[in-house]
Prior knowledge:
By secondary structure, the chain is mainly alpha-helical. It has helices at 2-6, 9-27, 35-64, 69-99, 121-127, 133-138, 142-159, 164-185, 188-201, 212-237, 242-259, 262-275, 281-294, 297-314, 320-334, 348-352, 359-369, 373-398, 404-408. The protein has 19 helices and no strands. The radius of gyration is 21 Å and the shape is globular.
Amino acid sequence: MKFWFGITLWKRILGMLVLGIAFGSLAGEAATSIDWIGQLFIRLIRMIVVPLVFVTLVSGVIAMGDPRRLGSLGVKTLGLYMGTTAVAITIGLTMATLIQPGVGVDLAGAVPKDIAAAQSLEDRLLGIIPLNPIRALADAEMLAIIFFALLFGTGILVTGKPAKSLADIFDAASEVMLKVTHLVMEVAPFGVFALIAGVVGTGGIEQLFTVLPLAGAMISACIIHVLLTHGFIIKYVLKLPAIRFFQGVRGAQLVAFSTSSSSGTLPVTIAVAEDNLGIKPAVASSVLPLGATINMDGSGIYVGILAVFSAQVLGIPLGITEYLLIALSATLVSIGTAAVPSASLFLLAAVLGVLDIDAAQTAIIVGFVFPFDRPLDMIRTVVNVTGDLSVGTAVAKWEGEFDEEVFRAPPAD
Length: 413
């Protein structure tokens, strides 16, 4: 036990991830027999997401000391999230145009997949304000929870001295939930082992080789975006060592890779932000939950590439107008995408609609992509979480909620 806990957490997760790949390769579909361990881990982190987001966000607002700072923080956060998503989609469209993954692809063997109708932008905006905050908490409606927590925290802040006891309760609850998060994360190596073994055992990774051009376009776009876009923000905009940033976020990246869920990774993301990057709770508890809900750089890349792929397969010519329409629609649908595995795939209809691709054709394309979507989803979730932490670091530094000594020190885990 002493030896095990003497190894930093990210190394334990990485080691078990490698062992999971090996076990899944050897055991094949029998590896799914330990899937319950992975599901147990996912249930644990989903269990703490809602209370963690709510109490830490309320506590973070109180810690700001001035409700007027919320406006400054919000503008910077939304601006960065929207800007990095637009850059991500541009990179994805460029790679799809260069690699041309849809040229020569035959969809004759694809089984159509039913897809849900895309939610309108109006419905998404209305959904931010909960009719019943308690139900929003129970249903884990993240945007509604964030809105209510911000409003509730602001109310405590404005009330002042009469609400001090309530502020102290939320401050203590925030500390407790972060401790609970660290306890749950001790299960992460075993959960990662089981989840990866199941994916590899059922052929998830190997299926990538059946669509190498499409996978290549997406993976290369993701790597370019993470290294160039977020590396540029850290090194040249914030004047911080980029290598230290990437060292600090690797624990969250590994969990994101195994769970394919930004919201499922959120407790780890917040812990990494505070422990390794020096982001103070006032920003970590507000910017990161919002990012897990609206910042979907990886999803934007994927949906954009799939739109170009679909046009190439169906022989639809693309001009500058079509590319702009794809970029705009992909940016909009990526906002508020459910932070769960394969969710972005089912938003494809909204983007393909701007190219006059009908529902039947969209269902065939989704059916073609769906069998190997999970390993690609694992990769794009890493991009999403990395973007959350990059933006969180930037906002924290600009708002004076940043401990540079912690950032520059060797990562805690």
